[in-house]
Amino acid sequence: MAPPPPQIVRVIDLETTGNAPPQHGVLEIGWQDVALGKDGRWELEGTGGSVMVNPGRPIPPLTMAVHHIREEDVADAPWFQDVARPILDPWPRRVALAAHRASFEEQFCTPALTRGADWICTWKCALRLWPEAPGFSNQILRYYRRPDGMEHERGLPAHRAFPDAYVTAFHLRDMLNSASLAQLVEWSKVPGLLPRVRYGPDRGKEWWEIDDDSLAAFLSDRDEDIRFTAQTELARRRGGGPVGHDPAEGLLL
């Protein structure tokens, strides 16, 4: 008997008319697979691809300036509902979906289209695995880390669905080879754990460096990632749970 095909995590990237459905719609969907090899290592598999989508609504100039997709480019394209399911649900091989800042893709790629798949957010996982990075956007990580095997031109232009999925897939590959799939999914289900303070007089400091009064001010911040990080640091200071270790051992990991 032929061996079963390898498990895959499919990286997804969307270009859209805006940030929030149903007011906004999808213009392009791109994908790239990362597969588990016989040696237990994850690697990119296949050529990936992208499909243009008719959003059924006008494209604001502001978003055209980002991805350069015009209304005439998608006027004859299929609807998202007609193409999304087979791309998002390559069952039975797919064990999860992934995206950089996956909460954005999840708004459009609903459980009905994904068969309720788990998602990996490579942004949230990068915060945990590479806290020393100067920034955590897809492109900053690309040039900071210089992943082995990436073809520079294949990852261009930025802000188009396939090139962005291709770049994200290299981040995901390296994450899966550093932590388990289950761990990446778990990290992705909670808010982002920020390695440094984002704003204010302590901007740029690591969280263990700020005093208790400054930390307390972040506990009710409107941003859920900041609140979560401040609560995690408070628990560390109180010796609570797995975060109660010495900052020198790797703060907030």
UniProtKB/TrEMBL annotation:
<keyword id="KW-0269">Exonuclease</keyword>
<dbReference type="Pfam" id="PF00929">
    <property type="entry name" value="RNase_T"/>
</dbReference>
<dbReference type="InterPro" id="IPR013520">
    <property type="entry name" value="Ribonucl_H"/>
</dbReference>
<keyword id="KW-0378">Hydrolase</keyword>
<dbReference type="InterPro" id="IPR036397">
    <property type="entry name" value="RNaseH_sf"/>
</dbReference>
<feature type="domain" description="Exonuclease">
    <location>
        <begin position="8"/>
        <end position="181"/>
    </location>
</feature>
<protein>
    <submittedName>
        <fullName>Exonuclease domain-containing protein</fullName>
    </submittedName>
</protein>
<keyword id="KW-0540">Nuclease</keyword>
<dbReference type="GO" id="GO:0004527">
    <property type="term" value="F:exonuclease activity"/>
</dbReference>
<dbReference type="InterPro" id="IPR012337">
    <property type="entry name" value="RNaseH-like_sf"/>
</dbReference>
